[in-house]
């Protein structure tokens, strides 16, 4: 590649690869060929979505780490008192879910240093857990991140995406909700005739539930990255040709899918080679995708018509994203579009089953108020009378303006006052917890049962099985 030529490119990126940008800043030059496929940068639509999903996953993983640090004893985990040892034990627990262990040359717990670096994700008794030796098991692919990398990825930029202006209050609110989980999440079940739950039981269920959030987001992130790797790389090559007039090492650039190698097949073969697994599972259930969307992931859906869109339940992904943003940032706008998605998803949302992650986001009376608000946003038509042999005429009435929804996090003074607290004009204020752990009794019992599995394992790692 020739020397830099005299043009002004302030703030302009000619490469989608973050490594290329970093090396150019450091050295003043970079060989584009060496950086192809080395990772994606922060600019550009498709690239930005991939980076966003991975950043959101890492930020939520660090939130889960704080939960483990505060309430690990709720699952029977014993964490050392010395700071360095405690951090290594938290790293190990975290690695079971995020997929990679952090290697330390001077590890205090020597046993951890001998374990495999990659922790595959497997399904065990209805939970996605880690496995260092998954022979004879199906493996579920997701983005890989070590606790150390996860820590670096939890940036102020990502926290602002998730929480808006509330970022600095998250840690304090998390601590409050975990210390009072039996009331924050258990009051509604008691009011409806259910048995009261104690705080350790509630926290064990919350920690188990949020581990599944991280896995779901890792899997969504993997799918969004793999689906964009080819167009992202191709765009980088086009940028290179635009700037330099040629592409080093490439005689012809083809857009035909038949001319490209199979990126998914290569990745699957790599996992098979290192783990000797039974099979690789790429498909995600709608419920898992909803769980990821609820916590900030942007989930891809395949192109389809309106009938298939609603029949497949894809509207629930947008609703989940909308609800999660409302609960985290404290505000959301109900437009006619959102109102229609709520109306079309009403039957799904009201299904009482463990995998329905939307039902338990609000109490029944709050959901009723939300659905009524959505119904009042529907377009209204007035008949103008019938005339013989004429098509009936209708007049569309003036559309009502969107409704502003505000969401207050529950606090010490309002712990018993959740749900819809006021409606003023075209604004509706709801109060509840920051965490999206369900308030529904049946769903809570489900996660309490699953937490018993984690407690019995002594972590989020499945014991190895012998090869068959």
Can you describe this structure?
This protein has 468 residues and is an alpha/beta fold. It has two domains: 18-283, no CATH class; 300-447, no CATH class. Helices cover 48% and strands 10% of the residues. The chain has helices at residues 18-27, 32-35, 45-71, 83-98, 110-113, 147-153, 156-163, 170-179, 181-184, 187-191, 199-244, 263-275, 286-294, 306-311, 315-329, 336-344, 346-349, 364-375, 441-457, and strands at residues 120-124, 127-131, 138-140, 279-281, 331-334, 381-383, 394-396, 403-409, 419-424, 427-432. Helix 3 packs across helix 6 and helix 3 crosses helix 8. The longest helix has 46 residues, at 199-244. The radius of gyration is 25 Å and the shape is globular. The termini are far apart. Residues 1-16, 27-44 and 255-260 have low confidence and may be disordered.
Overall structural class, as computed from helix and strand content, comes to alpha/beta
Q: How many alpha or pi helices?
A: 19
Number of strands: 10
Indicate the mean pLDDT: 81
The amount of beta strand, in percent, is: 5-15%
The geometry reads as globular
- How helical, in percent, are the residues? 40-55%
Structural Rg: 25 Å
SSE order in H/E notation? Answer: HHHHHEEEHHHHHHHEHHHEHHHEEEEEH
Describe the sheet with the most strands: 4 strands, mixed
Q: How many domains make up the coordinates?
A: 2
User: Which residue ranges are poorly predicted, with pLDDT under 50 across at least 5 consecutive positions?
Assistant: 1-16, 27-44, 255-260
Question: How far do the termini sit from each other?
Answer: 53 Å
The largest beta-sheet arranges its strands as: 5-8-10-9
């Amino acid at each position: 590649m020739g020397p830099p030529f005299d043009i002004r490119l302030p703030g302009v990126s000619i490469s989608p690869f973050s490594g290329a940008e970093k090396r150019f800043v450091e050295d003043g030059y970079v060989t584009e060929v060496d950086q192809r496929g080395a990772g994606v940068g922060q600019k550009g639509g498709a690239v930005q979505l991939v980076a966003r999903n991975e950043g959101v996953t890492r930020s939520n993983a660090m939130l889960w780490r704080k939960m483990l640090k505060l309430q690990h004893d709720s699952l029977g985990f014993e964490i050392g008192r010395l700071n360095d040892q405690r951090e290594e034990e938290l790293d190990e627990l975290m690695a079971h879910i995020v997929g990679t262990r952090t290697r330390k040359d001077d590890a205090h717990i020597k046993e951890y240093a001998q374990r495999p670096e990659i922790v595959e994700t497997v399904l065990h008794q209805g939970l996605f857990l880690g496995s260092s030796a998954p022979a004879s098991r199906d493996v579920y692919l997701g983005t890989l991140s070590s606790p150390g990398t996860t820590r670096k990825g939890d940036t102020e930029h990502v926290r602002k995406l998730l929480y808006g202006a509330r970022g600095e209050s998250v840690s304090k609110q998390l601590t409050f909700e975990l210390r009072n989980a039996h009331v924050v999440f258990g009051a509604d079940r008691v009011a409806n005739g259910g048995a009261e739950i104690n705080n350790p039981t509630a926290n064990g269920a919350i920690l188990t539930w949020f581990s599944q959030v991280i896995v779901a987001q890792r899997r969504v992130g993997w799918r969004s990255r793999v689906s964009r790797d080819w167009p992202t790389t191709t765009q980088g090559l086009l940028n290179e040709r635009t700037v330099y007039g040629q592409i080093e090492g490439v005689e012809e650039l083809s857009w035909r899918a038949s001319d490209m190698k199979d990126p998914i097949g290569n990745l699957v073969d790599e996992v098979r080679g290192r783990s000797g697994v039974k099979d690789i599972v790429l498909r995600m259930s709608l419920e898992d995708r909803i769980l990821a969307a609820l916590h900030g992931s942007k989930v891809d859906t395949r192109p389809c018509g309106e009938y298939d869109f609603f029949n497949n339940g894809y509207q629930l992904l947008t609703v989940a994203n909308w609800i999660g943003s409302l609960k985290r940032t404290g505000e959301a706008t109900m437009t006619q579009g959102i109102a229609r998605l709520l109306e079309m998803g009403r039957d799904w949302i009201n299904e009482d089953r463990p995998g329905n992650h939307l039902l338990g986001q609000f109490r029944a009376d709050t959901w009723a108020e939300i659905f009524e608000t959505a119904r009042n946003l529907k377009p209204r038509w007035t008949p103008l009378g019938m005339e013989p042999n004429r098509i009936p005429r209708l007049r569309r009435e003036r559309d009502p303006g969107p409704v502003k929804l505000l969401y207050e996090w529950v606090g010490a003074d309002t712990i018993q006052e959740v749900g819809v607290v006021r409606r003023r004009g075209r604004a509706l204020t709801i109060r509840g917890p920051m965490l999206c752990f369900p308030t529904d009794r049946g769903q809570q019992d489900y996660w309490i049962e699953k937490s018993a599995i984690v407690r019995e394992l002594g972590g989020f790692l499945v014991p190895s099985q012998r090869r068959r």
